[in-house]
Amino acid sequence: MPTDPESKNTQVEVVARRPELRVRLDVREYTVELIGEGPEDTVAVLIDGDVHSGSRFVDRDRIWVRTGGRTFVFDRVNPIAAATGGKGSAKGEIVSDMPGTVVAVHVKEGDHVATGDALLTIESMKLQITIGAERDGVVARIAVEPNATFDRGALLAIVRPEESS
Amino acid sequence: MFRKVLVANRGEIAVRVLRTLKRLGIPSVAVFHFVDRAAPHVEMADERVELTGAVPSAAYLDSAQILEACRQLNVDALHPGYGFLSENADFAETVTRAGIRFIGPDAAVMRLLGDKIRSRELAKKAGIPVSPSVELTGLADEVATAAKLGFPLLVKASAGGGGKGMKIARDLPELESAVTLARSEAARYFGDARIYAERLLLRPRHIEVQILGDGQGNVVHLGERECSIQRRYQKIIEESPASAIDPKIRTAILDSAVALTREAKYGNAGTVEFILGEDGTFFFLEVNARLQVEHPVTELVTGIELVEAQLRIAAEKKLPFTQEQITFSGHAIEMRVCAEEPERGFRPAVGRIGLLRLPRTVDARMDSGVREGTTVTSAFDSLLLKLIVHAETRGEAALKAQTALQELTLLGVSTNIDALARIVGSKPFRAGDLHTGFLEEHPTLIETPVDPKAEEHARIIAALGDPDFRRIAFATPEPHASIGAFRN
Questions:
Q1: What DSSP assignment string belongs to B149-180?
Q2: How many inter-chain contacts (A to B, CB under 8 Å) are there?
Q3: If DSSP codes are grouped into helix, strand and coil, which group holds residue B28?
């Protein structure tokens, strides 16, 4: 059976930094370590103790990887934008760049969050993007529910800075 | 030899010809369309002339502009490469009349061999087997005559093409119904009910012979090439010698090629193509009156530099060597790396080559018309480069080919590299069980499921190699530090 890359969550998600970096892809977790970057855009990593290396080329929104004698092409979502909610406003409003669907809501109103904490996972243009907090603060509002669809420019959530006391 | 040679082509073949000119110290001229202004062939030539055209390919087909470039830069010979104007007899004639040596056969020979009917007649005259056929005009005894050709038969529309109106008949009753059906379809599709039947070769192999002639009737052959691995009727893997061929049949094919081109008084390099059936039956297909894409496999097994031989024949009007001086050593395989998506019906791909790394651990020849930074457009053929390997045995050559392909890195444009690697690494290829329907018979070589684990490893490499991902992964509080999303 050919795998259908469209059918699964294929984010590379950091689940722990210490004692070792652990990432989750779909259902599997891996302990990973960056060994180094060589010349000619090669990257060597340890994945569960085994060395894997490959060449990378980033072409705007796509990332090409050649490893193990095979070429893979992935869409690249800017990790910083994804982690910080794209076009966040000064008021802490998180507004979507594109129309999409809410896959999951990871926090509730009133939660205290740190920069980068996952707030929502959305699916847009066949991409799953997890939106993270762009600042430390309190979740003032979650404007959407799981499975809800939204248009470009829709308000998704508001994170207000902690009240200084 | 020559004062100055203009190369009327682009891409890998222009680079290939320029390399020889450079080695021989002959000044060179490149022609180019604006879209190719940064192409390797333009940089490599001593002089360059821009050609204009409504579409880029039209520029390379514009004989008047090319001829004007020859005059302006005072060249005395022109190499046409393959494709474009290479087999245009009128062009060859015009070039010759302008006092410029056309590096290829004479216009008259080109016309003779370019005509399907005349070249078939010539082949028959030279005693070379041509696919027997019987025209079916509707007379009572025609079907019986056709049946005598031997089954299976292919019934085709005379005005046809693209497989429309084609029927396969395995016995007489099938032939009778095929004739009725084909006739009505031919009338419907082409407005012409004429049909004919010809012998159908099952699991046919494409075998061709490289020849060199002096134009006076002296011809030598440089062995055969097998080009049975094809997609969309175009070759993608070629080798020399042919795999597992009966030596008697091989000799008969080589002799036929020489006899035909001798009869035609062929001058310069040419290729005689044949189709070979499972039962050893072979038929003449056509003559390609030019250098072929797959010429490097012949160069590697004979040690003869074909472009140099072409130049010498064009300059001296005699063959640089005798048949006895041509020796064969080892086995060579060529793989055509094309910008395309094999898993989507080999649809041509476009984009910019962002990263290009050659094989490191095996010695492979690369004939390339691109480099890092080259933008691949749909304006031209999808061929980017060719990898050619040579080894003592076919098995070693196939292994080398596979390693070379696995090590070749070309990122930024979709290519057939991985599919080629699977083909040369496959059991049926290694066994030499080749025929022109090879890829239809083994579709999994094209559409191979991705190993999910390998894909996840690739994603991790993609993520950890990304400075933005690393910044977030290592710089934010945990747990649930951050997320990068990568998706196919």
A1: T-SSEEEEETT--TTTT-EEESSHHHHHHHHH
A2: 213
A3: strand
**Which residues of A are less than 8 Å from B458 in CB distance?**
54, 65, 67-68, 70, 72, 74
Q: Quick check: A70 and B454 CB within 8 A? A: yes
What residues does each domain of chain B span?
5-103, 133-199, 205-445, 451-488
Which domains, and CATH codes, for chain A?
5-75 (no CATH), 79-160 (2.40.50.100)
Interface of B with A in 89-118 (CB under 8 A): none
Tokens representing B467 are: 């400075």
Q: Which residue would you say has higher pLDDT here, A128 or B418? A: B418
CA dist., res. A149 & res. A159, Å (int) = 21
The pLDDT assigned to A97 comes to: 65
Chain segment A76-113, per-residue pLDDT in tens: 776 655 554 444 455 678 877 667 788 889 999 999 98
Fold of B5-103: Rossmann fold (3.40.50)
- Asked if the Cβ–Cβ distance from B481 to A54 is below 8 Å, we say no
Rounded Cα distance between A104 and A144, Å, is 10
Token output for A109: 């109103």
**Which architecture characterizes domain B133-199 according to CATH?**
2-Layer Sandwich (3.30)
Give me the CATH topology for the region B205-445: D-amino Acid Aminotransferase; Chain A, domain 1 (3.30.470)
Give the closest-approach CA distance of A165 to chain B in angstroms: 23
Whole-angstrom Cα distance, residue B197 to residue B183? 11
> Region B396-406: what's the mean pLDDT?
98
Is pLDDT of A131 > 70?
yes
Tell me which residue in B412, B460, B472 faces A116 most closely, judged by beta carbons: B472
Q: Would the CB atoms of B460 and A32 count as touching at under 8 Å?
A: yes
List the 51-90 stretch of B: residues with Cβ below 8 A of A. Answer: none
Share of chain B above pLDDT 70, in %: 95
